[in-house]
Design brief:
The complex is a heterodimer of chains A (187) and B (137).
Chain A: H1 7-14, H2 31-35, H3 46-54, H4 58-63, H5 66-69, H6 75-79, H7 86-99, H8 108-123, H9 128-131, H10 133-136, H11 141-156, H12 170-180
Chain B: E1 6-10, H1 14-26, E2 30-34, H2 37-46, E3 51-54, H3 63-73, E4 82-86, H4 88-92, E5 109-113, H5 118-136
Classes of the chains: A mainly alpha (187), B alpha/beta (137).
Chain lengths: 187, 137
């Protein structure tokens, strides 16, 4: 029997096409954690998460909310002295947890990205009034009210469309997606 | 004596690879595995294989499709029969509810969906190998 692969190898397989260095090049300098704008909302800082992946602490990595809190601003990737694509690694952990269904049911992230994909495939554009319900009910009453108020203002000024808009030549776009994802009725 | 048939698995899920390997090795096939498309391609180019078992959802998304298309362009590699084994419906079904998976990107392929029944897997594998032999003869 061949040797089974470790969790860190699984993650690096998921990001083999990324342009950065491998995760075990990490020198644990903490530049990623220091530069991260979302770090205060994370259970584990990005530096620790990379250390945990390299140490094969699978359960702890998947329990941490770090990858889901990541705002994909790519500051860490740009500043990493070891040239690791850290934001890419966050996406790899997200993919791992979605494909293997290791996330908890009340997590907003997977539902949000699913709804986002659906609106894009259906109309070619994202539409906030459909996206918002995926996360808005997790808010407290005050935040909920603020969000609704803000959205109403934006709608009155025309910053959010009242009805979902569609792109031109939607059929071409959809057949392009069918070309990438081998699903759907054959023409 | 007929030498043992060599099968390559390209799949990023180690548990699944272990399972399929156990099934196929018990049926007296020689099985090797690659856990990402890049290693898989290297293996394909380094040695001749009789059959390829290919996963779809790898790396950044549906990268198995890219592997299949690349194989299709190579005049030598496209002779290898390909059995696509995918859980894509589970992962992407929300986009195309109730619609089938179509293996349209290769002329020499078959498609199975995860979870795979061991007997069905062995049946398809031997059928594909026989088909390839007949084509050669």
């Amino acid at each position: 029997m061949a040797d089974t692969i470790t969790f860190s190898q699984e993650i690096s397989n998921l990001m083999y096409a990324a342009h950065g260095s491998p995760l075990n090049n990490c020198i644990q300098c903490g530049t990623c954690s220091g530069t991260c704008p979302a770090v205060e909302f994370m259970d584990q800082t990005p530096r620790r998460l990379i250390g945990m992946i390299n140490a094969d602490l699978k359960e702890d990595v998947l329990d941490a909310n770090t990858s889901w809190v990541c705002a994909s601003c790519y500051h860490c990737t740009v500043r990493c002295p070891a040239k690791i694509d850290i934001a890419g690694a966050m996406y790899a952990v997200k993919r791992y947890s979605i494909w293997n269904k290791t996330y908890s049911d009340d997590l907003v992230g997977p539902v949000f990205s699913e709804t986002f994909m659906k609106t894009i495939v259906r109309s070619g554009r994202s539409y906030e009034p459909i996206l918002a319900p995926t996360y808005i009910f997790g808010f407290g009453a005050k935040e909920f009210f603020q969000e609704v108020q803000g959205a109403t203002k934006m709608m009155l000024k025309g910053r959010i469309p009242v009805l979902p808009s569609k792109i031109k030549r939607l059929k071409n776009f959809q057949s392009m997606i069918k070309h990438i994802i081998p699903m759907g009725e054959e023409e | 004596m007929d030498p043992r048939k060599r099968i390559l698995i390209i799949d990023d899920d180690p548990d699944y690879v272990d399972g399929m390997k156990a099934i196929l090795e018990k049926a007296d096939y020689e099985v090797e595995a690659a856990y990402n498309p890049k290693d898989g391609f290297k293996a394909l180019e380094s040695k001749p294989y009789d059959l390829l078992l290919l996963d779809i959802m790898m790396g950044r998304g549906a990268e198995g499709v890219m592997v299949a298309r690349k194989i299709n362009k190579d005049p030598e590699l496209r002779k290898i029969p390909v059995l696509i084994i995918t859980g894509i419906r589970e992962q992407m079904a929300f986009l195309f509810p109730g619609q089938p998976v179509h293996p349209r990107f290769l002329p020499t392929d078959e498609l199975l969906e995860k979870p795979v029944d061991p007997n069905l897997l062995l049946e398809k594998v031997s059928a594909l190998l026989k088909m390839a032999e007949e084509k050669e003869a």
